[in-house]
Design a protein that fits this description.
The protein is an alpha/beta fold. The protein is built from 31 helices and 27 strands. Helix 14 (352-363) runs antiparallel to helix 16 (382-402) and helix 16 packs across helix 18. The structure holds adenosine-5'-triphosphate. Adenosine-5'-triphosphate is lined by residues 620, 630-631, 633, 650, 652-658, 796. Adenosine-5'-triphosphate binds at residues 620, 630-631, 633, 650, 652-658, 796.
Length: 890
């Protein structure tokens, strides 16, 4: 570590005009280069932070803030994190929304010294760590993609490009400016690169509210011509025609993505697969609110448990988990592509042995994709090489498994071809070399050394045996030194700073410091309780060990670089293997799920069919207590001349929301390529899915509950098409009854007449059930309950026709509302029902049943009328009390 002070001496700095010391100048130049990122400035075994960076990091990491010298008469704040444990600190800073520029010493301090004893070690920023460019396992969720997205909005339209550094996949899709938010919701990026605008764009704010890290960048990064040049450079082509045709916005977005990676991945550029131009509409459009309301890939609390993904995930590998999350998060709209996926699930369903063997083999397989990305970016370690070795072996076994009597379908045949590459000559060599080169127990970092197996490199073995011989000689020296010094407790010890030394207690040191012993034992250090010595012989052996150790490490590093080079030369084939392994895992997992939960293969059609028999809610079903049975329900939205929309009524807790959502989830699963929880299913491709549940606050955005609901309803009314599926749960409940009812009424009419979509609507407004008389494609269904001895029994059965009454109070009683409150509520309800009169001028209620004319006689009042308490005997009063309590009930 070069200990040059960061700033000038106190005396110099105090003058305020002192020129910067070389180190200070170097620091500030790098600081400017780091821009808005925090600068991790490497000094020996620490990354140091200074000035505001230090204050911010010390606060965020909970580490001590110290100071180092002065600048302009002020102390320079400083804090540091040890290099060997930096990842945890980095993770914390990234999670807190910061980016970190890592500046390394890019020159050996010994080299720098050759330029003069005070020469400064060269330092450079080698990488800027941002949320979307992480590759370290410790910083990433193994089962979730880590997408980096870039958005370009040009006058003619917008585009979103995105990548996952661990797979090298590169996608771009054009989108209208208004649709960019939804597209990003489908991608679920860890970071979005946007054009910097004064005050921040609406999209930037929207993403900020959703907690998506946004990095605004200079407009020049989004230049489409530059983007085209960058793409050609990245793929080494003179034209992009071979990739398809890009819009200008598409080129701008891809260019910004590559440019941003150039800025952040300074040392090594990631390698990409050819960009995939996703056609607009190729995936089911699902906006962010729908995703959240259906809890597709994350539950309401942000965790996985409780989500659809969690309920259907039977994958056993990290790569499989990530692929399944992509399938569920972005269901397809192309029938042929869906069929291809279904075929893979069906094949594994039939081939039970192959499935069990595949899952077994994959569950121990390493995360090949992420290991490859680290090796590609120069951040790999010995364990990543071992991951390549082990994954190749798994790939060979999987290729064997797929050679079955029943020929696998298209996707699996393609996958098998990729896996068979693992058996090719080139891979056999690589596998053989990796197998011979690596030890069983491996360190994380190459510089830790000790990972190359004995017998692989004779020069390395020789260096190691020199080192080990010297160590053995040292071990033997101890006994001789004890005799000569006459100190039984004398020990030879080792420290990183001093190397080997002799240690005795302070009481025994006196004789060794005086002649004749002092001629052999040279004093090195005195501590409170011990004194340390060395000898000529020990120092020589120590130097020998250091030399041999350095040489061994250099040889190991050279071998590591060579092995990494061989892996990198085959990145494309290895990635293809990783993709095929993930596909096998997902398909086998979905087959296991289908078998375990009795899921069926849905028939996917081009029309607007929606016919589910015996459908179930995969998440609610999985969470029912032991012994409880989920009641399956049919849902038909398509029959000729009959309903395309169902209005679902029924008491609270009957299962309306469950019924609505299960059908939306069945559509998602079906188009993701999975089998579905039903006895049978026929589904015409859904282009957009909308789901809204009552009202939820968005106070952060300054919108009231009702306002949010109306903005969302407006969006659906404007966007739903005749191929969409709309699921609305209690829309309009966030405002006064008549307003809410009227809005729900008008919205239903619009969806029925103008959008003509398939839809399911749950409501507590019984008045709405009259709509089926005027809207030919709307039908009423209700979730049945039975009353038994005054209690409500939930049957969870969806039946034709509207519900007869509400049972709200009965449910309130079940929920444990105090008995007095329940009784009072019943009285109020009766009064309201008596008093309710439909306003004459609202045609809405024209068909409503006539209000109750005669008030019901009140038995309590009857008993109490005419009672004179003063004239009653205690016995009569007692009797009356009994009769009154009889009427009120227990
Ligand atoms: N088909 C079913 N089979 C078994 N249990 C069910 C079924 N549907 C719903 N349930 C159970 O009933 C509970 C309530 O269901 P749900 O929330 O769908 O009722 P709801 O009618 O929408 O109620 P509310 O009107 O109060 O919102 C669920 O949490 C689940 O435990």
């Amino acid at each position: 570590m070069d200990g040059a002070p960061l700033s000038g001496t106190d005396e110099e700095a105090g003058k305020g005009t002192t020129p910067l010391t070389p180190m200070m100048a170097q620091y500030h130049a790098l600081r400017r280069e780091a821009g808005s990122a925090l600068l991790f400035y490497r000094m020996g075994d620490f990354y140091e932070l200074f000035h505001e960076d230090a204050v911010l990091a010390a606060h965020c990491l909970g580490i001590t803030l110290t100071r180092r010298g002065q600048q302009g008469g002020e102390d320079v704040p400083m804090c540091g994190v040890p290099v060997h444990a930096y990842e945890g600190y980095l993770a914390k800073l990234i999670r807190a929304g910061h980016s970190v520029a890592v500046c390394e010493q890019t020159e050996d301090p010994a080299e720098a010294k050759k330029r003069g004893s005070k020469a400064l070690v060269r330092r450079e920023i080698v990488r800027v760590v941002t949320p979307g460019t992480l590759t370290e396992d410790t910083l990433l969720d193994a089962r979730a993609h880590n997408h980096l997205a870039a958005v370009a909005i040009l006058p003619g339209g917008g585009a979103v490009a995105h990548t996952d550094l661990s797979t090298g996949d590169l996608f771009v899709q054009d989108a209208e400016e208004e649709a960019v938010g939804d597209l990003l919701a489908a991608i679920g990026p860890a970071e979005v690169v946007l054009k910097q605008t004064d005050g921040g764009s609406a999209l930037e704010k929207q993403l900020g509210q959703r907690g998506v890290p946004v990095t605004p960048c200079h407009g020049s990064l989004f230049d489409s011509q530059r983007g085209e040049r960058r793409l050609k450079e990245a793929f080494g082509t003179s034209t992009l025609d071979g990739f398809g045709s890009f819009s200008r916005a598409g080129l701008a977005a891809l260019g910004a993505l590559l440019g941003y990676l150039d800025l952040t991945q300074v040392e090594e550029r990631p390698r990409f697969k050819p960009p995939i131009i996703a056609a607009p509409g190729s995936i089911m459009a699902i906006d962010q609110v729908t995703r959240a309301s259906l809890e597709l890939t994350a539950a309401r609390d942000g965790g996985r448990a409780g989500s659809l993904l969690h309920a259907v995930d039977r994958t056993v590998s990290a790569g499989g988990g990530r692929l399944l999350s992509r399938w569920i998060g972005a269901p397809l709209t192309d029938r042929a592509a869906i069929k291809d996926r279904q075929d893979t699930v069906e094949w594994f369903l039939g081939e039970r042995d192959a499935r069990a063997a595949a899952s077994d083999r994959l569950s121990g397989a390493p995360d090949l994709a992420r290991a490859l990305s680290r090796l590609e970016l120069g951040r790999g370690g010995p364990r990543d090489l071992a991951a390549v070795r082990d994954a190749l072996m798994a790939a060979r076994d999987l290729a064997d498994l797929l050679r079955s009597d029943a020929p696998p379908p298209k996707l699996l045949t393609e996958g098998a071809r990729r896996l068979e590459a693992a058996d090719s000559e080139g891979f056999s060599d690589l596998l053989g070399t990796l197998g011979a080169a690596l030890k069983a127990d491996l360190p994380l970092l190459p510089r830790d050394g000790g990972f190359i197996a004995e017998g692989f490199d004779p020069a390395l073995d020789e260096a190691r045996s020199l080192r080990d011989d010297a160590r053995r000689i040292i071990a033997r020296l101890e006994a001789g030194y004890r005799d000569r010094a006459g100190v039984k407790s004398l020990k030879i010890k080792h420290s990183r700073v001093l190397g080997y030394f002799i240690e005795v207690t302070a009481a025994n040191a006196g004789a060794m410091m005086a002649p004749p012993l002092s001629e052999e034992f040279r004093h090195r250090q005195t501590l409170a309780s011990a004194v340390r010595f060395t000898t000529h012989e020990l120092a020589e052996l120590d130097a020998k060990i250091v030399r041999a150790g350095d040489q061994a490490l250099a040889l190991e590093l050279a071998t590591f670089a060579r092995l990494t080079g061989s892996v990198k030369a085959r990145t494309d084939d290895l990635r293809a293997c990783a993709d095929a392994l993930a596909l096998c895992d997902v398909a086998a997992g979905l087959a296991t799920l289908a078998e375990e939960k009795n899921h069926v293969r849905p028939v996917i059609e081009e029309g607007v069919a929606f016919e589910i028999e015996g459908g179930r809610h995969p998440v609610v079903e999985a969470s029912l207590p032991a012994g409880a049975r989920f009641v399956p329900n049919d849902c038909r939205l398509d029959q000729e001349g009959e309903a395309r929309m169902l209005l679902v009524t029924g008491p609270n807790m009957a299962g309306k929301s469950t019924f609505l959502r299960q059908n939306a989830l069945i559509a998602v699963l079906a188009q993701a390529g999975a089998f579905v929880p039903a006895a049978s299913a026929r589904i015409g491709i859904v282009d957009r899915l909308f789901s809204r549940v009552g009202a939820s606050d968005d106070l952060a955005a300054g919108r009231s509950t009702f306002m949010v609901e109306m903005v969302e309803t407006a969006l659906i009314l404007n966007q739903a098409t005749d191929r969409s599926l709309v699921v609305l749960d209690e829309v309009g409940r966030g405002t006064a009854t008549f307003d809410g009812l009227s809005i729900a009424w008008a919205a239903l009419e619009h969806l029925h007449e103008a959008s003509r979509c398939r839809g399911l609507f749950a409501t507590h407004y019984h008045e709405l059930t009259k709509l089926s008389e005027t809207l030919p494609r709307l039908a009423n269904v209700s979730v049945a309950v039975r009353e038994w001895e005054g209690e409500v029994v939930f049957l969870h059965e969806v039946r034709e026709g509207p519900a007869d009454k509400s049972y709200g109070i009965a449910v309130a009683r079940l929920a444990g509302l105090p008995r007095g409150v329940v009784r009072r509520a019943e009285t109020v309800l009766r009064r309201l029902e008596r008093e309710r009169e439909a306003p004459e001028d609202l045609p809405l209620f024209a068909a409503a049943p006539a209000p109750h004319a005669e008030p019901e006689p009140d038995p309590l009042r009857g008993l109490l009328t005419g009672v004179d308490p003063d004239a009653m005997s205690p016995r009569e009063a007692h009797d009356l009390l009994y009769r009154l309590t009889d009427i009120v009930g227990p």
